[in-house]
Amino acid sequence: MNYRNLGETGMRVSEISLGTWALGGEWGTVAEDDAYASLNRAVDLGVNFLDTADVYGNGRSENLIGRLLKDRPNDEIFVATKAGRRLDPHTTEGYNHENLERFVERSLKNLGVEALDLLQLHCPPTETYRQDSTFEALDRLQEAGKVRNYGVSVEKVEEARMALSYPNVRTVQIIFNIFR
Asked: Which of 73, 116, 120, 137 has its CA 20 to 30 A from that of 162?
């Protein structure tokens, strides 16, 4: 496995990561034992970067990763989770400190960690990138030690460019999959 630095996060991650949306069970039934075996096999093969979100299986994938982190404390495993899609309605105004802190607290509990390696906004509405208070809220969560790094998961290059105008945005994940 090859590894590289992930932006300015200080994390040295595998060039191949494992996305865990399917482990949440939303793409068909995935037995918990099979999902957990998949995580372990990926780590056994050198994958040390896992991508998840609080909405994948309503927290199921985060809980599975939390179990992995507990069972493999000596392995260097980095987790990127995403937040924001729990908002109903999914609006720019919902990306505020109160909601983001609530989402972070839930992910911390699900993952069984004291701080998130990487929190990414989960494809928020485009206007969110013009809302300074969202990024100020992320700065506050970082200052509180709940989030080590933060970034964005975007659908459009325009959104990535806007996000990068904020000095503490460390990563940009552009959605790229067979469905898009």
From this structure: 116
